[in-house]
Design brief:
12 helices; 5-stranded mixed β-sheet; globular; alpha/beta; Rossmann fold; 324 residues; 2 domains
Length: 324
C-alpha cells in the first residue's frame, strides 16, 4: 500500500494500464503539460506524444477521433478537462459510442473512457461546476462511474480502461488533493457495478456517490452523537448501480435518503428512490427522502455557492425527520 492523492492514484492506474496494454493511449487538451489538474504529469516523457496526444480545442473532434480509434482496436482515454465542456461532444458519446455495439449486432465495440472532472470547485461558477451524471445514466450503452476515494479512483479507472463498453468516468474536482492508502498491486481491480458500505449503521440508509460520500460519512458522525445510526452506501458505479447492496441496506434500516451534489430535480437519486419505492415499499418505515442541490446555476461567489452545497447538516436533518 502507498499513500497518494486521488489525482495520483488515477495517474498510476493510467501508467499501469499503458504498460500492460500497448493499445491504451490518452488524448485531450494540454496533456503534454500534465493536464489541468496534473493528472497526466510526466506521462508524455514516459510514453511519448503518440500515446499521450495533445489535441486542438474541440471536444467534438477529440471525442470523434477517440470513437474512431476505439472502433479500429485501440482503447482511448479521453480527457474532457471539465464535465461542462463535454457537452460539446454529446453527439459523439450518445449517438455514436453508446449505440455502436447494438447497431452493428455486437460486431463493433467502443472501449473508450471519457474522463469528466465534475462538481463544485474553488468558485468556478456556472460553466465549470456542474454535476451531470444523470444525463449519462439515461443513455443505454453507457457505463457511468463516480469514485469517491483514491483507492477507488485507481481500481475503478483500471476496470473502466479494460471495459469493452464506453465509460463516462466522473472525477470530482474537489477530491483531487484527497489522500488515502492505495494498493500497489497492478492486478487489483474494483469491479464496475459494485457498491461499498462506507459506514455501517442500523437506523437510516444514505445512498450517495462521489464527493457527497464524505458529507454523508461526516453526517453519520454527527448523527451518532444524538444516538442515530446512519449506514452510508457509496455506489461507486451509477450505471449499472448495485441494487442488491442498496436493497439489503434498506431492508435492514427501513429508511432511505439519497444524497447527491447534482441538482435534485431530475437527478439520478430520483431513479434510486423510485426503484426502492417500487421494489421495497412494504419494507419502508418512512417515505424516501432526497437531498440535492436547488435548481439554480452555481454562483462564483462563495457564500452563494455554499447555499447550493449538500452539507452534513442537511443530511442529518433529513435523517432526523425520517425517525421523528
Amino acid at each position: 500500500m502507498s499513500e497518494m492523492t486521488y489525482s495520483d492514484a488515477a495517474k498510476q492506474a493510467v501508467i499501469e494500464e499503458m504498460h500492460r496494454d500497448p493499445t491504451v493511449w490518452a488524448l485531450g487538451e494540454d496533456l503534454g503539460r500534465g493536464g489541468v489538474f496534473g493528472q497526466y504529469r510526466g506521462l508524455i516523457d514516459e510514453f511519448g506524444p503518440d500515446r499521450v496526444a495533445d489535441t486542438p480545442i474541440s471536444e467534438s473532434t477529440i471525442m470523434g477521433a477517440a470513437v474512431g480509434a476505439a472502433l479500429v482496436g485501440t482503447r482511448p482515454i479521453v480527457e474532457m478537462r471539465f464535465a461542462d465542456f463535454a457537452l460539446c461532444a454529446v453527439d459523439e458519446m450518445v449517438n455514436q459510442a453508446a449505440k455502436a455495439r447494438f447497431m452493428f449486432g455486437g460486431q463493433a465495440r467502443v472501449p473508450v473512457v471519457v474522463r469528466q472532472p465534475s462538481g463544485m470547485w474553488r468558485s468556478s461558477a456556472a460553466q465549470h461546476s456542474q454535476s451531470l451524471e444523470a444525463w449519462y445514466t439515461h443513455i443505454p450503452g453507457l457505463v457511468v462511474v463516480a469514485p469517491s476515494t483514491p483507492a477507488d479512483n485507481k481500481g475503478l479507472l483500471k476496470s473502466a480502461i479494460r471495459c469493452d463498453d464506453p465509460v463516462i468516468y466522473m472525477e470530482h474536482k474537489g477530491l483531487w488533493p484527497l489522500t488515502g492508502e492505495v494498493s500497489d498491486d497492478p492486478d487489483l481491480l474494483i469491479p464496475l457495478g459494485e457498491a461499498r458500505v462506507a459506514r455501517e449503521g442500523s437506523d437510516v440508509t444514505v445512498v450517495t456517490w462521489s464527493n457527497t460520500v464524505h458529507a454523508a460519512t461526516d453526517a453519520a458522525e454527527q448523527a451518532a452523537a444524538d444516538g442515530l445510526s446512519l449506514e452510508v452506501i457509496d455506489l461507486r458505479t451509477l450505471w449499472p448501480w448495485d441494487q442488491a447492496a442498496v436493497f439489503a441496506s434498506v431492508r435492514k434500516t427501513g429508511r432511505l435518503i439519497v444524497a447527491h451534489e447534482a441538482v435534485q430535480v431530475g437527478g439520478f437519486g430520483a431513479e434510486i428512490a423510485a426503484t426502492v419505492a417500487e421494489e421495497l415499499g412494504d419494507a419502508l418505515r418512512a417515505p424516501v427522502k432526497r437531498v440535492g442541490s436547488p435548481r439554480a446555476p452555481i454562483s462564483y461567489a462563495s457564500p452563494l455557492e455554499d447555499c447550493l452545497r449538500v452539507t452534513p447538516d442537511r443530511i442529518v436533518a433529513a435523517a432526523k425527520a425520517q425517525v421523528a
